[in-house]
């Protein structure tokens, strides 16, 4: 299976878990607990990624980054947002200076 569209496939899989049995699906259980539970997991996974990065352990950094990405996509799915929208926004910003992008937000 190609890694090219893995984020889109993950997004679709997580969206399909919206009405799944929380006893049989981790994602359905997370959705049933609501956004606070998902946000807590994002915080936990973000902290674990920070610790892995501080230790400089490449494999652990990748592992924790994947956990964080999973929970971020789960949050998007909870709100009915597909990874395609995230990718569209990243594409919109592509080639734009981070400073210019930040300044454009301040001007609004």
Write the topology of this structure.
Layout: H1 6-16, H2 26-33, H3 35-55, H4 58-78, H5 83-93, H6 98-107
Helix pairs in contact: 1-4, 3-4
Structure notes:
The protein has 108 residues and is mostly helical. The protein has a single domain, classed as Helix Hairpins. It contains six helices and no strands. The protein is globular, with a radius of gyration of 16 Å. The protein starts with 5 loop residues before the first helix and ends with a helix. The mean pLDDT is 93.
Can you summarize this structure?
The protein has 108 residues and is mostly helical. It is 76% helix and 0% strand. It is built from 6 helices and no strands.
Structure characteristics:
108 residues; mainly alpha; Helix Hairpins
Q: How far is the N terminus from the C terminus? A: 42 Å
What is the number of helices? Answer: 6
The named CATH superfamily:
MazG-like
Question: Do you know the CATH topology?
Answer: Helix Hairpins
Low-confidence stretches: none
Radius of gyration: 16 Å
Under the CATH scheme, which architecture would be assigned?
Orthogonal Bundle
């Amino acid at each position: 299976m190609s890694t090219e569209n893995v984020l889109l496939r993950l997004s679709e899989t997580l969206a399909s878990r919206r009405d799944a049995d929380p006893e049989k699906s981790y994602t359905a259980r997370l959705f049933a607990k609501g956004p606070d539970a998902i946000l807590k997991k994002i915080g936990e996974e973000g902290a674990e990624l920070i610790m892995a990065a501080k230790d400089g352990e490449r494999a652990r950094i990748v592992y924790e980054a994947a956990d964080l990405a999973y929970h971020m996509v789960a949050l998007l799915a909870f709100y009915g947002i597909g990874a395609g929208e995230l990718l569209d926004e990243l594409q919109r910003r592509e080639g734009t200076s981070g400073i210019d992008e930040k300044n454009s937000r301040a001007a609004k």
